[in-house]
Amino acid sequence: MAQGLTILGLESSCDDTAAAVVRRDGAGDAEILSNVVIRQDDLHSAFGGVVPEIAARAHAEKIDLAVEQALAEAGVTLTACDAIAVTAGPGLIGGVLAGVMCAKGLSAATGLPLVGVNHLAGHALTPRLTDGATFPYLMLLVSGGHCQFLRVDGPDAFTRLGGTIDDAPGEAFDKTARLLGLPQPGGPSVEAAAAQGKTSVPLPRPLLDRPGLDMSFSGLKTALLRARDAVVAEHGGLPRDRRADICASFQAAMTEVLAEKSRRALHAHPDVTAFAVAGGVAANRSLRAALTELAGGANLPFLAPPLALCTDNAAMIAWAGAELFAGGRRDNLTLAARPRWPLDGDAAPMLGSGKRGAKA
Ligand code: KG4
Ligand code: ZN
Questions:
Q1: Ligand 1 atom 5, closest CA
Q2: pTM, rounded to two decimals
């Protein structure tokens, strides 16, 4: 049986400074020994979005602390680890550099091997960390910065089947909240308001009339703006119940598009063993319910990792690093930080980008 591995993971590609220690035993089973996330929300909230320079500085200041804390919580020393896995892209370059430089420093000081991990591979391999998913499986990655369908055939074998050509769904939820005067992050506040509303506002279902798995969400925002303005013109303001109706209608449109495209993806890939989601939007109960039903209809398990492992974290990077390391991957001090790094080099480039910069 293969040897067990203990991997330190670092993640700093967006606005969370994270470090984690994950163990992969000889049979390939996982154990998360620690998972530290230092958030930066307070630093960015006044600006209504992530400010790359502020994020980079905060990562550089906090990454050592995150590593120390992760090792202490795991009860292991750095030299007891087998390798250091680090997000080497895609993401905000200043942040990615902070993580890569830290990992290189640790590697140079200890002689531990480095493994550069694609952030999206971290998300895409999470169902193996949490549920021991077996290849091949289908994944919908749906967050504030990403929206894509992936077929996962191995730790380094991804096919991008389609995705958004403009906004990411989380970004659309956040913009909706902003337009309606609801607090950020928009997803949870729009979901809470939607629970009180009726799906009475007609909104488009973008690209549902076209074949394939590409999606578009920016037009939904324009339609929503018009719906809001019509209510304001009629009532001289935005009554709470009408706002709830707009939220319910928006959430229904979002759910319907994502569910229908998921149905098509599953239909085109009948050999997969599971349907998995990751990303912050996977927390949405309406979406989860629709996808659970869909997977059930296809006789497949629906894998939705706990939220702390759906959103950005370093346990997923350590785990992806462990899978790659077990397969022989080794990087060295020439490892480069990449702002863009498509998981699937053969896929057509995406036209749009999320609010946090192009991720793929
Ligand atoms: O994965 P994540 O933490 O960060 C990245 O974008 O990488 O996702 C955050 C996004 C935000 O846009 C937030 O509004 C959305 O996930 N979100 C939700 C819900 N909870 C968080 N969207 C819809 N419904 C929710 N319950
Ligand atoms: Zn992410």
A1: 144
A2: 0.91
